[in-house]
Inverse folding.
């Protein structure tokens, strides 16, 4: 079994031993041995390695990893330092700037958010090079849906940021009586002007965390 951390491994032990996950593992072994797959197999679970279950304050749900060389790093919307910032992340930075007056960062590496308790989780954790959504429907959704459900069931006061149709479809997994669910359009250039810009989600997130006695996220600290 893959090792994430003692805490996450215990929480997800049933998922890791399930027929669905074992079938997914066999698929991934074949994919990684015959094709170019992102991220590196050692980075697949980076979102959970960087954000422990007990520290999760915010879940920022993405769709699947970036599919060009050097981009995917196991964190939704994030790219390694020095890599050109993708358009969706540029728009996220623009919205943060409008809401909070924070200067646009020069880096697309969101590790600083992860270390503050923002779980940067994609619904699908792997992808073929240059083929967006190529691992959709191969089993990851079973696994990541379980993560969302366990956070909803076992924690209180978490903010779930659901941007775009794919992320918003996960709303049924979340107990709104215990958590804050914020939904809007995806920040991609195709849809950002249809409701992402002006959503106010970064202010609303911190207001909710403060109201619940939780340290807010420093969105400018990467």
């Amino acid at each position: 079994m893959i090792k994430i951390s003692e805490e996450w491994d215990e929480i997800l032990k049933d998922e890791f031993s399930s027929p669905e996950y074992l079938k997914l593992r066999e698929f991934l072994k074949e994919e990684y041995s015959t094709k170019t797959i992102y991220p590196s197999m050692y980075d697949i679970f980076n979102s959970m390695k960087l954000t422990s279950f007990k520290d999760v304050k915010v879940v920022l749900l993405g769709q699947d990893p970036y599919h060009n060389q050097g981009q995917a790093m196991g964190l939704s919307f994030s790219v390694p330092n020095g890599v050109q910032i993708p358009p969706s992340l540029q728009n996220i930075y623009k919205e943060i700037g409008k809401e909070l007056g924070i200067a646009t960062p020069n880096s697309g590496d969101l590790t600083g958010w992860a270390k503050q308790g923002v779980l940067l989780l994609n619904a699908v954790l792997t992808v073929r090079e240059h083929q967006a959504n190529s691992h959709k429907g191969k089993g990851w959704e079973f696994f990541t849906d379980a993560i969302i459900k366990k956070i909803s069931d076992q924690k209180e006061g978490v903010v779930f940021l659901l941007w775009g149709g794919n992320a918003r479809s996960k709303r049924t997994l979340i107990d709104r009586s215990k958590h804050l669910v914020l939904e809007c359009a995806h920040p991609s250039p195709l849809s950002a002007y249809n409701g992402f810009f002006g959503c106010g989600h970064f202010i609303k997130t911190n207001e909710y965390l403060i109201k619940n006695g939780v340290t807010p996220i420093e969105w400018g600290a990467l």
